[in-house]
Design a protein that fits this description.
The structure holds 2 protein chains of 2 kinds.
Chain A: E1 4-7, H1 8-18, E2 23-26, H2 33-45, E3 49-52, H3 56-68, E4 73-77, H4 79-94, E5 99-105, H5 121-126, E6 136-138, H6 143-160, E7 163-169, H7 170-174, E8 176-179, E9 206-207, H8 217-231, E10 235-238, E11 245-248, H9 251-266, E12 271-276, E13 278-280, H10 284-288, E14 295-299, H11 308-314, E15 321-324, H12 333-344
Parallel strand pairs in A: 2-3, 2-4, 4-5, 5-7, 6-7, 11-12, 11-14, 14-15
Antiparallel strand pairs in A: 1-8, 6-13, 10-12
Helix pairs in contact in A: 1-2, 1-6, 3-4, 9-12
Chain B: H1 20-34, E1 41-45, E2 60-63, H2 69-79, E3 84-90, H3 91-97, H4 99-107, E4 113-118, E5 121-122, E6 128-129, H5 148-151, H6 157-161, E7 168-173, H7 177-195, E8 201-206, H8 210-213, H9 217-231, E9 235-238
Parallel strand pairs in B: 1-2, 1-3, 3-4, 4-8, 7-8
Antiparallel strand pairs in B: 5-6, 7-9
Helix pairs in contact in B: 1-7, 3-4
Classes of the chains: A alpha/beta, B alpha/beta.
The structure holds thiamine diphosphate and iron/sulfur cluster (SF4).
GO biological process, one term (chain B): cellular respiration
Protein name (chain B): 2-oxoglutarate oxidoreductase
Keywords (chain B): Oxidoreductase
Chain lengths: ~350, ~240
Amino acid sequence: MGKQLMKGNEAIAEAAVRAGCKFFAGYPITPQSEILEYLSWRLPQADGVFVQSESEIAGISMVYGAAASGFRTMTSSSGPGYSLLQEGISYIASAELPCLIVNVMRYGSGLGDIFVGQSDYWQAVKNGGHGDYRSIVYAPASVQETAELVISGFDTAEKYRNPVTILSDASIGQMMEPVELPAMKEHDPDKFQWSLKGKGDGEFRRVTSVMYFQENYDDYIASKYKKIEENEQLWEEFQTEDAEIVLVSYGISSRICEEAVSMARKDGLKVGLIRPISLYPFPVKAFEKLNNVKSFISVEMTALAQMAEDVALACKMKNPVYSLGGGMVIYEASDVYAKINEVIEGNAKEVF
Amino acid sequence: MIKKKPAACFVDNKYCPGCGHGTVNRLVGEVLEEMGVDKDAIGAIAVGCSSLMPETFAIDCIQAQHGRAAAVAVGIKRCRPDKTVFSYQGDGDALAIGFSETMYAAIRNENITVIFVNNGNFGMTGGQMAPTTLEGQKTTTSPYGRDIGTTGHPLNVIQMMENLNVAYLARGSVSNNRNIMKTKEYIRNAFEAQQNNEGYSFVEILSPCPTNWGMDPLKAMEHIENNVIKTYELGEFVKRGEKNA
Ligand SMILES: Cc1ncc(C[n+]2csc(CCOP(=O)(O)OP(=O)(O)O)c2C)c(N)n1
Ligand code: SF4
């Protein structure tokens, strides 16, 4: 199949269907409503179920039930709606169920605004719900990558029996780009020993927090997430081999950073870029290989330099970490270049 | 008449002595077994004292979030339409935090069965006021007696659902043998409605919470007969097939 022009949000929806997703429940909020709209006609065509739930809380609760039934299932939201999903995400993680959650980020806290932003980093990556769990979080930087991460996201969710979050943003969700999608895949919901299907002639099943029956629960949970951290780090690097200044940026802002790196390189400056694709687990391995780096600049569309903390941890605070933040509009590559110069000239204030 | 305990209740329940939950658990087990659907049944169980049910109930179950059991049941039923799916919830769960999820499952006429145990308070957390608490009733958060001027009237959810397009609505009680047998009939009707794809079925069951009512079990049963039933009338309010006739 050739490439087709698609909106980021529609690519999420179509990729999910092709991955064998059979159940979606969600509630409208800009800038992700196209996902609902698309799935409302597409899922019934593909033998699936679409429910427009009465709230995000109900939506994620339906997803919880559907996931417990062994089906590939997802919901999507943004900003305030993502906050409402957290209760269910914590339950789904505690019961070790796979599912896909999409947050097409908007800007700001509270109601926020529909402008582009990346201010849900902390909530998505550090957990918005209560307790000892992590969501595996992927941050696509293009429509093609969005589709790919949705498809591999379902597999990873099942591999670890853990929710996977696609952290997109208003611009990637709304932009159109050529995308190549794989063929339809079938998923067998009965293949899991743990899924709810009625006890039949066997033992009855319980879907509840593993805490209630797992021996050495603390060790079990710690080693589960350790395994994810060891095996699932994803990133892309760009001209980092000899770099003295390394930009760290994900999603839409990383695309501008790539341009800024090229500008700087043309002027003979040793600048590179690390683009985390998985935000949890954060790609600390990418930082371990760097030898010449003098400082990092975390470039993200948030007022409080949210990812900068993880950059500081990843380099074990051995280098100063600067930040270029602020949302609502996407920076120009020249803004990033100006920040690079500020750092070189010693005029920038470090955050860590 | 002594009846055999249903296999679904595989060990003795863990509720307080005289609690109505134990009786309701058993009735659900008996009905599912007698209908031959216990092997195909899946329960979405609420928090609160309901959450003790899965410890003694030998049927596939999922622990729902507080208030969301109906929505969780919907997720299961929409994926597995040929299974018998029910939620099991208390009054705080279904009518306070989960009111929206409860009503919308009914509004959409979801083909699930809701077993709703109304004991007039939040049992598990120590007897706080619930939407169903009677006027003047003292609880740990209505120490002067429930004042309907500030809290509204006791919530009669069946009345609210009556005008919706649902398959079956009934209210029973476990306060004496006759009522227990009637309640069992209601539960059976509810599950049969689901089995026949008629849509949403809801059985409210007036049930004692001797521990938090501060009464011995017999007094608690008398209290239901003498007082609770006055606010919450028993009977079938939407009968099967009535709306489609
Ligand atoms: C989100 C959330 N809020 C509060 C609680 C605490 N909580 C547990 S059970 C319960 C009340 C249950 O009362 P009810 O539904 O009437 O059931 P009963 O225990 O009386 O059977 C509450 C408030 C919780 N588990 N989750
Ligand atoms: S607290 Fe009340 S509802 Fe809960 S088990 Fe005890 S008697 Fe039953």
